[in-house]
Write a structure and sequence with these properties.
821 residues, alpha/beta, 7-stranded mixed sheet, 27 helices, 37% helix, globular
Length: 821
């Protein structure tokens, strides 16, 4: 059946679709128009047209009648899709407006299930039960390799510093955590900031297509470069855009090395001097200037020196001055020697140069150029040549990962003068501190340096990576392909930054920081036995915890109440409010931290269980051909005892092994303390082995024991072989819980122990061990006699069994006594 519908000319839009004529199903439809028209302008839902008509034709003045197949209604389909998206965007915008209004009115708070506060159960188990959507999302991603907080955050429902998760309560309200980590210092302002939301919507073309800016500059990428001119640190006007902080540091290192190759007499790149406690990234070049064991362990990189970071000691100016003197002397030694053995390093010469620095700095307004030239004139040609082996000095104005530690302005001014005299570039790593976090646009401005640094790196709040370089070093960035990156910044990150540039209010940052600092200092006065030394600048604050193991405990207790705190260094906590954080949110964070401290002080939590809130997702199978056996002789045990303890703690140290109500004192009951393991390793006829993954150089499992008569564990005195001196007692065995093929690793341990025990003339092996190993263990272990079974060993909920197995086939390997069950 053919129906005619006359539509108005193009440009007219129906407020609603004109009702379609009643027609039989699958009729034909002809659309006629007095002007150029299309389905797109008709107001009809394309899906409706497709469902009602089998053949659609269009007739209009500018085109001949032509069949319009349903699948050719591309424009209609696109518009229908976009209309749906626009509707969702409208809902999202309305939600953003409401969220921000509620937040600014003080109506948004940290809100998590009260059951998370339960002390006797692991956080991971509680998340599984009470935040099931987060748990399911993490489980679905378990093939990935990552280490993170154990929830799935939902940006759509987040606002300010309050991070929503995908889980909701019975009334449909989202749970929220109060974040005092500022998303690892990456977000200057709050979540769902209206300025950012608006900018993203207005910049959709840049969001939908990511350009490779290294060859294809866009108006957006060029606008970023123009804006960087405006905020560049004084004296460092040139800039180069990359993607991450580590990439910025890598390129800074490359620039100073190339500078040395091109300018030194020897034509060598030299080395970069960095500081103890520094963190500059995880790429190989950045690792060479990073001095944290966990980050560097196992990676070959440049053998470059580091010197003491003279962190200010609160209330002890003499100690601070001593550290500064020590650090400057270390640097001076490197400058005058170039690390060449037996080069002269006169203490008197050092003292004269330091006195000259002090004298110049004591007279503000002095002629820097004349001073530097006069000091250089005192240097011998040999000293100048050796000093050119130092390619740069790299320093963080505040060590974030290193514990939120600051050096004094006095030290930084001397550092700048010394490097200038010896013509060594000074690089400030402001990846974390840059753009307002300290209350100054750039943190190195806090020090009132006598002259600008040569390079400043910036990332995090830049949403990409940026290097600012001096005119002298800028030359090298013009050499084709020596400095390049495909993306030269992510467009969405650029949009976010540009939206916020004019929002930065340094007075606001200082006010926010002062309120947070005041609250933290009040806590240190109230809990002197737990906290001390609030430090930092602006909103980049840290607070020291008296014991390193208490850091994880406090973070765990705070997280269970809805507060996210991140660690810094060995025993400090970061407290990083966003620049515009509402006072009520800061007060709430301080209140939750107080409650976490009260849990610790009041004995409501075992302070020796040091489990942070993060979880490691993604187990790895360790190929057996990459595993090597380490024999734990007394000397071998001493060398590896900390790694052995780490395996023991990861396997049996968590609270997840215990049912609610189990009383634990001092340590989790399944976990052996180091002293016990040391004692076993020193026993006569002790045998111990560890398995090390050659790829990661990490111990993945261990087993340890000695003659049965050396032990007094449950079941030992009733062992029918006790006193015969022919039985090896396997005292401890553990494999990392993150190892996917843990059964294979356990079997390698048992087989290796068996071989060594036989060689030591043992005939039997006894052990109190998880009962599951009777089935999963090697074949000779399957026939082990059960001398004792304990269904809920030490309240862990796990079944343990005292087993005895013959190490070699024998006529009658079974025990000579009745077994008990």
């Amino acid at each position: 059946m053919l129906m005619d519908i006359e539509l108005p000319p193009r440009g007219y839009r129906f407020p609603e679709a004109t009702p379609l004529p009643r027609t039989p199903a699958h009729a034909d439809l002809t659309i006629r128009s007095r002007g150029v028209c299309s389905i797109l302008h008709s107001g009809y839902a394309p899906n409706l047209l497709r469902s009602r008509y089998s053949r659609i034709k269009y007739q209009g003045p500018s085109m001949q009648s032509a069949p319009i197949r349903p699948y050719n209604l591309t424009g209609v389909a696109i518009m229908n899709t976009l209309n749906t998206a626009v509707s969702r965007v409208a809902e999202s915008l309305d939600q953003v407006a409401q969220l921000n209004a509620r937040y600014r009115a003080g109506e948004v708070h940290a809100y998590v299930p009260e059951a998370l506060r339960e002390s006797e159960r692991s956080l991971e188990k509680l998340i599984e039960k009470h935040l099931p959507a987060s748990h399911a999302a993490l489980e679905a991603a378990s093939r990935a390799l990552f280490f993170s907080l154990p929830v799935a955050f939902n940006p759509a429902e987040s606002v300010g510093p309050y991070l929503a998760v995908i889980d909701r309560d019975a009334a449909g309200q989202p749970y929220r955590f109060l974040d005092m980590g500022a998303l690892l210092a990456t977000n200057a302002f709050g979540e769902n900031d209206p300025a950012v939301v608006r900018a993203v919507l207005e910049s959709l073309p840049f969001v939908t297509s990511r350009y490779a800016h290294s060859e294809y500059q866009t108006v957006l990428s060029l606008r970023l470069k123009a804006e960087l001119n405006r905020i560049a640190p004084a004296g460092i006007p040139r800039h180069f855009v990359v993607n991450t902080g580590a990439e910025a540091v890598e390129n800074a290192i490359k620039s100073v090395l190339l500078n040395r190759v091109m300018t030194s007499q020897d034509g060598e790149g030299g080395f970069v001097v960095s500081f103890e406690g520094a963190f500059h990234g995880r790429t190989l070049g950045a690792l060479a200037v990073t001095h944290r064991k966990k980050s560097r362990l196992g990676f070959p990189t440049f053998d470059w020196p580091h010197i003491l970071f003279p962190a200010e000691e609160a209330g002890s100016p003499k100690e601070t001055a001593r550290r500064e003197e020590h650090s400057l002397k270390q640097l001076w030694d490197l400058l005058v020697s170039g690390r060449i053995p037996r080069a002269e390093k006169s203490r008197d010469t050092y003292r004269r140069e330091m006195d000259a620095l002090d004298e110049f700095l004591a007279q503000p307004g002095g002629d820097l150029s004349a001073f530097v030239q006069a000091q250089r004139a005192n240097l011998s040609s040999e000293v100048v040549r050796r000093s050119q082996r130092v390619a740069a000095v790299l320093v963080e104005p505040i060590q974030g990962e290193g514990g939120v530690r600051m050096a004094s302005a006095r030290f930084m001014r001397k550092l700048r003068l010394l490097t200038r005299i010896y013509d060594v570039p000074l690089v400030f790593d402001e990846v974390q501190t840059g753009w307002g976090m300290t209350g100054r646009l750039w943190a190195h401005e806090l020090f009132d340096l006598p002259c600008p640094p040569d390079v400043v790196t910036w990332a995090k709040k830049a949403q990409n990576g940026v290097l600012f370089v001096s005119e002298e070093l800028a030359t090298f960035f013009q050499e084709e392909k020596k400095f390049n990156t495909t993306w030269e910044g992510d467009s969405v990150g650029i949009v976010r930054l540009l939206a916020l540039l004019d929002k930065l209010d340094l007075d606001q940052v200082r006010r926010t920081g002062e309120r947070a600092r005041s609250g933290l200092e009040a806590l240190t006065r109230e809990y002197r036995e737990i906290l001390k030394n609030v430090r930092g600048a602006g909103v980049m604050l840290g607070i020291e915890v008296m014991r390193a193991d208490w850091c994880d405990t406090l973070r765990d207790r705070a997280f269970r109440r809805g507060l996210v705190l991140l660690p810094a260094g060995e025993r400090a906590l970061r407290f990083y409010p966003r620049y515009d954080t509402e006072p009520s949110a800061i007060d709430e964070a301080l209140s939750i931290l107080r409650l976490a401290i009260e849990d610790l002080v009041g004995g409501r939590v075992d302070s020796d269980v040091t489990t942070p809130p993060e979880i490691r997702v993604g187990k790895l199978a360790i190929p057996l051909d990459t595993v090597e056996i380490v024999d734990l002789t007394p000397a071998g045990f001493e060398a590896h005892k900390l790694q052995i303890l780490a395996v023991e703690e990861e396997r049996y140290g968590g609270t997840g092994h215990y049912r609610p109500g189990v009383r634990r004192t001092g340590r989790p009951l399944l976990q052996f303390p180091l002293e016990t393991l040391e004692s076993t390793a020193s026993n006569p006829r002790a045998i111990g082995i560890a398995l090390r993954d050659r790829v990661s150089a990490r111990l993945v499992g261990y087993a340890l024991g000695s003659a049965l008569e050396n032990h007094d564990e449950e079941g030992v005195r009733s062992d029918p072989r006790f006193g015969e001196n022919n039985t090896f007692y396997l005292h401890a065995m553990a494999v990392l819980p993150t190892v996917q093929n843990c059964v294979e690793i356990e079997n390698v341990l048992l087989e290796s122990l068996r071989t060594r025990a036989i060689a030591a003339e043992f005939e039997f092996l006894s052990t109190l061990i998880e009962d599951r190993l009777r089935e999963t263990g090697p074949a000779w272990f399957h026939s082990a006699a059960i001398l004792l079974q304990i269904d809920n060993y030490l309240g862990s909920g796990s079944c343990f069994a005292y087993l005895q197995a013959a190490l070699q086939p024998a006529a009658d390997p079974s025990p000579r006594a009745q077994t008990n069950t």
